[in-house]
Hints:
The protein is of the alpha/beta class. The protein is 37% helix and 21% strand. α1 packs across α4 and α8 (191-199) packs antiparallel against α10.
Amino acid sequence: xxxxxxxxxxxxxxxxxxxxxxxxxxxxxxxxxxxxxxxxxxxxxxxxxxxxxxxxxxxxxxxxxxxxxxxxxxxxxxxxxxxxxxxxxxxxxxxxxxxxxxxxxxxxxxxxxxxxxxxxxxxxxxxxxxxxxxxxxxxxxxxxxxxxxxxxxxxxxxxxxxxxxxxxxxxxxxxxxxxxxxxxxxxxxxxxxxxxxxxxxxxxxxxxxxxxxxxxxxxxxxxxxxxxxxxxxxxxxxxxxxxxxxxxxxxxxxxxxxxx
Length: 260
C-alpha cells in the first residue's frame, strides 16, 4: 500500500505507542543494539515512532529511512533534528557496512522483493550486525481488531506474509535467527481510544478492507463499546525477531595472529 498525505496525517493517532511500551521494546532490543559510536538504521521509519527512542536508549547514531514522502513530512514536523532520508528497502541509499544494526518495525510486509531487501541488508550491515524485526506474527485471532474485521486478516496481502517465509528468505541470504521474544504492549486504555485507532484505518489490513466491511466492523465495535463489552486496557503481544549476519570466514591460507 502507498502512504499518502491523508494516511500519514492520521498515522500517529492510529499507531501511537504509550511511552512505557516504547520502553519495553527498547529493553527487549537493547542487547542487540550498538552503543555510542555505533550506527543504527531505522528502516521504514514512518513518522519516527522509534527513531528518537533508539537513539536515547542505545546512545548510538540513528539514521531513519522512509520511502513515503508524506510520511517523511510528518516525521520532520515532529523530529526536525533527526537524520532522515528517503529510500526503498530494496535499494538502500547507503554505503556497504554502514550500520551495526537495522531496526525494521512493522514494515517488512510492505517490501515488494524480499530477496532484494535481504541482499541490501547484508550489504549495509557490518559483519556480526543484527537485524531486529518487530511485528505481529502470532495467530490473527489474538489481535484486538480481529473479531470486528476478520476478513482484514484472512484476505489482506499484508497479513498473509508469514514469519517462516520471511526468515526463510533471510536465511538463504546468510542470516541466522538468534532470538525471538514476544512483547506485551497496551493498544488502548479506553473503548474510545480503541474506536479512534480503528477509525484511522492506519493498519494495513484495515486499509485494504472494502469500505462496506470496514464500516460494518466499526459499527460492531461502537456497539460493544456502548454496551460496556470492551475490557480495558486492551493489550496485545507482538514479536521481536533478531537475526544476525555472521562475519565472513577468513580467506583460505590465512591464520590468526599468535597469542602472547
